Structures are given as C-alpha cells and as structure tokens.
Amino acid sequence: MAIKELTVFVVFSWIVCTTTTTTGRDIISSIVYQKLLAIKEIPQEDIDGAASELIRLQEFYKLYPHNITKETSLDADEAYHVGSVAYNENKFQYAFLWFLYSLDRLTEHSTTTEEELLHYLSYSAYHFGSLPVAIYFGQRLLNLDPTNEEVKVELSLYKHLRFQRTSNPDIFTLNTKPNSSYEALCRGEVDERASAISKRQRALSCRYSTGGGNPRLMYAPVKEEVEWDEPRIIRYHDIISDREIEILKNISRPQMSDVEIGGATVFPEVGVALKPKKGSAVFWYNLQKNGRVDFDTQHAGCPVLVGNKWVANKWIHEFGQEFRRPCSLSDWE
User: Fold this and answer.
1) Nearest 5°: CA angle at 264, between 262 and 268?
2) Domain boundary assignment for the chain
3) Are 110 and 75 contacting, i.e. CB atoms less than 8 angstroms apart?
4) Which of 9, 56, 60, 67 has its CA 20 to 30 A from that of 187?
5) 73 or 125, greater pLDDT
6) Is the pTM value of this prediction over 0.70?
7) Is Signal among this UniProt entry's keywords (predicted)?
8) Quick one: CATH architecture of 64-166?
9) What is the 3-state secondary structure (H, E, C) of the chain?
10) Bridge partners, residue 273, by sequence
11) Alpha-carbon dihedral of residues 147, 149, 153, 155, nearest 10 degrees?
12) 263 torsion bin: left (phi>0), alpha (psi -120 to 50), beta (else)
C-alpha cells in the first residue's frame, strides 16, 4: 500500500530539498523537507517504483518529460534516475528522452556527469535502432575523451551497422498511434466509429427514475442518465452525498482529491469512455437475459494522470432477480 501511494513528487522532493537557496520556491521546499525529516530513509525500491510508474503513465499517455515536469521540475540527477529505470526496463526511447532532459539541466552541482549521459544517450539510441543519433552522441563523448577505446569500438560498430539498416526510427518523436482501442479511449482520441457513436449518443436520454415504482424512490427519484444503449450502461448522479464520501474517505485516508486527468472507465468493444464523476454510480448488466456473458461489457480502468480515483464496487448477482429481470429463451438477448 505504501509503495502504491508514494508519489513521484514526494520521492524526488526529498532529494531536491537537500539543497538550500534564498528563493521562494526553496522556502516552500524546505517546509516539505521538514515534514520529510520523520522519514529516516526512502527505500530504493520505492524510488524505483515511483520512477517506473511515472514511465508507465508517460508511455500510456504519450508524454514527453517536459509535459510531466511542468508543475514539479526534476533536476539532472532525478531525470537521470528515471532514465536509468526506463533503460533497465528496455524502454529505450523513453530512457533516451529522460537522459536528454537530464543533459539539458546539468549544473556544477549535479552528481551525474556529461560523460555518463552521452554514453547512455548513445546506447539508448543504438538499442532503439536510431543509429545516426547513436553515432552523434558517441562522437560527442569521444570528443570529451579522445583516449576512450571502448567508445571508439562502439562508434566503429554503429557506423558499420548504419549502412546495413534500411530504416532509422525517429527517437525524438513518440509514436502516438494507439496500440489498442483501450489506449485510444483513455486518451480521448476519436476512432473510426466516431460518426456512428455520435449519432447514438444524440439518441441517449436522462430522466428522474423511480426504479419502476420503487416505494423508496417515489418521492425522491434518482437522476438517471443513459450513457450507452447496447449494452445498456446507466449512470446515477448524486447517488452518494459529499458528507457520505468524506466519511468513507476519512475511514481509510484523508485529503484525497478528485481525478483531474485520466481515470476513465472504458468499454473498448463499443468505443465508450466514461469519465469519473464524484458521487455518481455507473451500472450495467454483464450477463445477457439468457445467462450468457455479454462480451461487449468488457471494460477497464484508465491510469490516473492527475489526482486520485476512489471507487467502490457493488455486485448484484443473477440469482433472486427472476421477477426484476426475467430469463430469456432467445439466443440473441
């Protein structure tokens, strides 16, 4: 639990705050540092885990390092660490981008050296298949250290392989083509079904529902919105009050925020993405009336990019529902 809740900001703030200047930002950082003094040591596996999750978000949402660090800028050493984790996970393009980000932020106070970064930039580009870039950074490294025999051998290899390769992928530009409809829906991208989906969405409706005459809802109907028609996906708004939400949150852990970016529930088979909304509940049948699994209801949660997502699941079993949702003998429903 502790590893999952460890944020990148907290982990890297522990490193950032060890240096002090007179700027306003450092005053804030020193306050954070005082709070972190109670933590005797942040385990290396937690730091690596935070970096790995950062790379996962970057990979999923196709983000560059500067996109991620707009609010909390990482210094050269921190960026180098993220790049090293990506490199060890064989995610060479993301490793390259982090090493490049680190190179741009090197200062006299950095423990990471220019030689280290040029070495890994060249290696990452080579493993990614971008040989001209590997040669460029390898040559820069050789200019710094003309006696480095290892670099000379590597450069000779890269130049030899360059003429055997027919393609050199662009390591500087992320491929935004989605690997699946799941990823596309999470990123809010429009797929080939967009036109048909738009027409179906215009036919959807919302109403105040009494649940088919439920006595408990006759004088206080619920806000019901049809998010999708087939399979039928319903969202109930304001199903739980802010006070009840706070009680549930305080039982577990306080001071968690709403989801700002990411965290949608997506149905890839039908091209539907439902954004999280505080206090609402989404309902659907995952079985058809004949008892067979409705594969159109296969769904997944998108990674949360900004904020925190709190969900509660309630399973309503098919047994005992014979009058509310009678079984069908048809193979089609």
Assistant:
1) 120
2) 6-12+191-317, 64-166
3) yes
4) 9
5) 125
6) no
7) yes
8) Alpha Horseshoe (1.25)
9) CHHHHCCHHHHHHHHHCCCCCCCHHHHHHHHHHHHHCCCCCCCHHHHHHHHHHHHHHHHHHCCCHHHHCCCCCCCHHHHHHHHHHHHHCCCHHHHHHHHHHHHHCCCCCCCCCHHHHHHHHHHHHHHHCCHHHHHHHHHHHHHHCCCCHHHHHHHHHHHHHHCCCCCCCCCCCCCCCCCCHHHHHHCCCCCCCHHHHHHHHHCCCEEEECCCCCHHHCCCCEEEEEEECCCCEEEEECCCCHHHHHHHHHHHCCCCCCCCEECCEEECCCCEEECCCCCCEEEECCECCCCCECHHHCCEECCEEECCCCCCCCCCCCCCCCCCCCCCCCCCC
10) 266
11) -30
12) left
For residue 224, report the phi and psi dihedrals to the nearest 5 degrees. Answer: -115, 130
| Spatial separation of the C-alpha atoms in residues 130 and 167, rounded to whole Å | 8
Between CA 220 and CA 13 the distance in angstroms is 49
Place of tokens 């797929």: 191
Peptide bond into 146 cis (omega under 30): no
- State how beta strands 233-237 and 222-228 pair: antiparallel
Across the strands, what pairs with 98?
none
State the average pLDDT over residues 305-328.
80
Q: Among 3, 9, 5, which Cα is nearest to 69's?
A: 9
The values of phi and psi at residue 64, to 5°, are -90, 160
Max Cα-Cα span within the chain = 86
Q: How far apart are CA 183 and CA 219, in angstroms?
A: 42
* Burial tier of 192 (Cβ tally within 10 Å: 0-12, 13-18, 19+): exposed
Q: Which amino acid is at 319?
A: F
Torsion angle of alpha carbons 34, 35, 37, 40, nearest 10°? -170
Distances in whole angstroms, Cα of residue 258 to Cα of each of 4, 168, 222, 247, 305: 17, 43, 22, 15, 11
Percent of the chain with pLDDT over 70: 80
Q: List, for residues 211-253, the tens digit of each pLDDT value.
A: 888 888 888 898 999 888 888 888 989 888 888 888 877 765 5
